[in-house]
Amino acid sequence: MKILYFAWLRERLNKGEEEVFPPAEVKTVADLIGWLAANDEAAELAFAKRALIRAAVDRQLVGHDAPIAGASTVALFPPMTGG
Amino acid sequence: MQVRVTAEPFDPGGESNAFLARHGGAGAAVTFTGIVRSRPDGPILALTLECYVELAESQIAALTSEAIARFSLIDAAVIHRHGRMLPGEPIMQVMTLAPHREDAFRGAQFLMDYLKTDAPFWKKEETPDGERWVEAKAEDDVARGRW
Asked: What is the pTM of this model?
């Protein structure tokens, strides 16, 4: 599965995207964030404030409880500041 | 309906005229243009908008469709730039067209409020003191919540 990062999340992780292969027990966006944070020191810091992180699964904005099974792209980013 | 997410500058007046020219006798048209701000008490050298283009296109299209349905608009269009811009440059423009002004204004306001919080853009300011990401404002969530 491809993960995309934007804005300060991208900067803190020092990458805009990566390919990951989470284990089967990683079922939701929240699980994925927890798994990413547990596997990498920079990610642990970047994801410290979980409630700030927004997500899109296959180009749909979703909540942290959304399933990621079968998803090809998950995007993680801070609150949006468009307009 | 027109949705354009682009790194290119655009001409606000030209876009507004082209939008109007597509519809004769519509009644009420509203154009809102967002412009890079720099104030003496908070000078900005440049503003960079990062964008998740594919999601921005689908999100803005969905929001624009909803605005058209909800406010019985004859048409609506959104242009939103990303990339680096200087103070005074247009960032984005919303245009709505309705038989009466109330719906044209409300449709434009609805689109503006949702674009602030639900379109995947992130603003970074270059200031004389360095760069900083613009934080999302609680009042923007409040503004969206009224719809």
From this structure: 0.94
ipTM of model: 0.94
* B136 with A59: Cβ contact below 8 A: no
Residue among B52, B118, B124 whose CB faces A4 most closely: B52
Looking at domain A2-77, its CATH architecture is Roll (3.10)
Task: Nearest chain B residue to A7 by CA: give it.
Answer: B122
- pLDDT at position B142 is 86
B122 → chain A, closest CA residue: A81
Question: Would you state the structure tokens that stand for residue B58, as one six-digit string?
Answer: 């689908």
Angle in degrees, CA B11, B15, B18, rounded to 5: 140
Distance CA A33, CA B9 (A): 36
Helices (H), B5-90: 12-21, 53-70
pLDDT at B134 over 90: yes
Q: Is the pLDDT of residue A4 over 90?
A: yes
Return the domain boundaries, chain B.
2-145
| Beta carbons of B116 and A56 less than 8 Å apart | no
Task: For residue B47, give the H/E element and its range.
Answer: strand B46-51
- How confident is the model over B49-98, as pLDDT tens digits? 999 999 999 999 999 999 999 999 999 999 999 999 999 999 999 999 99
Residue B11 forms contact with A (CB below 8 Å)? no
Domain B2-145 belongs to what topology? Aldehyde Oxidoreductase; domain 3 (3.90.1170)
Residue among A10, A75, A81 minimizing CB distance to B55: A75
Length of chain A: 83
